[in-house]
């Protein structure tokens, strides 16, 4: 994975699941990784593990719903490494429920984290990437970004939005710069994502499907593939899902 070596890569939502697996995998392949999330202790433990394995890693506490904290994350990375090669907009939440349950606060949270968080990430790194005339922004959508289930109306809406944002970014930047835009769409993956569902019906379903997902490393390797391709080659979209569900 020669085109990953020495790249400076920011990963949001790196304190668990897909973000954690991706940070570890990229560091093993020689990337300099900056891990961001809200749970600092978990970030510190992951960074320690990466460093013990000979990797290069830092962590920054950042809530993706704060444009200011995302700017600080980018500034820290630029001050530390002098450039930002890749941003992986991975942080996301999925407290699914049916619309009639009126869990309006959770709708707001999903819109804030899954859509605004992605936009604030782009806003934080795009100026530096345009100045460098190179960069790569990878956004996590979902199979739920292509179809809607009962209970996933709001989550799916946010992941459809992430697809629109990724495609818009790709079209804009392909005209004027060398910034790559990649969309990663996982299917069910074994992480903590289902643990935050509060709807009783949703929790029952989550219990039934928990354990059926694929390993977060299967998503990490897809992300790594998109980074490792030559800089003139854009992997614009990858879907990775369980073989049997
Ligand atoms: P996890 O719950 O394991 O990880 C989510 C990560 O997002 C955590 O590190 C969490 O860190 C972070 N996060 C949540 N809210 C915020 C916030 N406000 N600010 C900063 N970080 C935040 O789930 P996954 O690893 O599964 O999720 C990663 C991505 O993959 C998400 O975008 C999800 O939608 C997507 N996905 C997952 C699938 C699955 O089946 N697991 C399927 C399809 C897509 P902390 O709480 O420390 O801030």
TrEMBL record:
SUPFAM superfamilies xref list: NAD(P)-binding Rossmann-fold domains
CDD domains referenced in this protein's UniProt entry, alphabetically: SDR_c
Family statement drawn from the similarity comment of this UniProt entry: Belongs to the short-chain dehydrogenases/reductases (SDR) family.
Protein name: Oxidoreductase
Keywords for this protein: Oxidoreductase
Record flagged with keyword Membrane: no
GO MF annotation, one: oxidoreductase activity, acting on the CH-OH group of donors, NAD or NADP as acceptor
Species per Swiss-Prot/TrEMBL record: Sporolactobacillus laevolacticus DSM 442
Ketoreductase domain mapped to chain residues: 7-189
InterPro entries named in the record: KR_dom, NAD(P)-bd_dom_sf, Sc_DH/Rdtase_CS, SDR_fam
